[in-house]
Design a protein that fits this description.
Radius of gyration: 14 Å
Structural class: mainly beta
Number of strands: 6
Helix content: 10-25%
Number of domains: 1
Distance between the termini: 4 Å
Length: 131
């Protein structure tokens, strides 16, 4: 089992809006880090469960392209441009804006796997557990 740390993500309203629009495969952006490599990806939220009574801690189930959970995704690649990967200088807010504008990123909706996630909307941090 491995974990990927979430360092930024949606507000509670954005998260529940993504769940409400699951039938249209609404993408919700997350910023993650592993092995000191920070990356962005977008997911499709399938379920949200209260983790405690605070209204700020959640157990999520979401789908993400399987390659974004692999160790290779977090390795620096030099000289080779990957399809549908945005330039490094893009910050999380710009990535989020592209997702909201439905920027054509078909890669984000392919080869999906479901994962369990703990996420706090208060800190906008969490953990993805991959078995």
């Amino acid at each position: 089992m491995k974990t990927i740390e979430i360092t930024n993500g949606p507000s509670r309203e954005e998260m529940f809006d993504g769940l409400r629009l699951v039938s249209e495969k609404r993408l919700i952006p997350f910023q993650v880090i592993k092995n000191e490599k920070e990356k962005y990806f977008a997911v499709i939220i399938h379920s949200i469960e209260a983790e405690d009574g605070s209204g700020q801690s959640w157990n999520l189930t979401f789908s993400v392209n399987s390659k974004y959970l692999s160790d290779e995704f977090f390795v620096e690649k030099t000289g080779k441009k990957e399809p549908y990967v945005i330039a490094k200088k893009v910050d999380f807010n710009y990535f989020k804006q592209l997702i909201e504008e439905k920027y054509p990123m078909p890669e984000l909706r392919k080869d999906l796997v479901r994962v369990k996630v703990y996420y706090s909307t208060k800190t906008r941090k969490g953990v993805i557990t991959v078995e």
